[in-house]
Design a protein that fits this description.
By secondary structure, the protein is α+β, with helices and mostly antiparallel strands. Helix content is 22%, strand content 39%. The chain has one helix spanning 2-34; strands spanning 50-54, 61-67, 72-79, 82-93, 99-103, 114-121, 124-128, 138-144. An 8-stranded antiparallel beta barrel has the order 1-2-3-4-5-6-7-8.
Length: 148
């Protein structure tokens, strides 16, 4: 009788653990889908969603931005094969229907800075940073299909 009771307890614990694991997996999947959910973003901003890669010259790395559904912009970098992301700021559209990025990261030295999108196509854009050195004020990016 005692062995059967222990088996029933073990079986119930196993089922509860399996349900908890399945629930955690479903939550992880849905949250990654929410990163680029176009329904959460006003229609004018939807073309920005996703990953953008800087097309200019870099030394031993690839860099770019991630525009997320919640209005957050992340900087990403692949350096020596290691991928890293960090918060950069937010993005939006001004009264004249121009896209912009607003930096609010002390780590990136972008706090309070605006970066304006001067050219935009579905697969490429150019940003302008008025406070950068003259040679670095304009930067070109291409849209990529996912995380590099």
């Amino acid at each position: 009788m005692k062995v059967r009771f222990n088996c029933l307890i073990m079986k119930k614990l196993f089922i509860i653990a399996a349900i908890a694991l399945l629930g955690g997996m479903m939550t992880a999947c849905s949250s990654s889908d929410d990163e680029f959910d176009v329904e959460q973003v006003e229609p004018a901003l939807r073309p920005l969603l996703g990953y953008w890669q800087y097309t200019g010259q870099t030394i031993d790395s690839r860099v770019g931005y991630v525009f997320k559904s919640n209005g957050e912009v992340l900087c990403w970098e692949v350096y020596w094969g290691e991928y890293k992301e960090r918060h950069f700021g937010t993005y939006g559209i001004d009264d004249e229907q121009h896209f912009y990025l607003k930096g609010d990261s002390k780590e990136n030295n972008s706090e309070g800075e605006y970066y304006y999108v001067t050219e935009f196509f579905p697969d490429s854009m150019t940003t302008f940073s008025p406070n950068s050195p003259e040679l670095l004020q304009y930067k070109k990016y291409k849209k990529i299909g996912g995380r590099p």
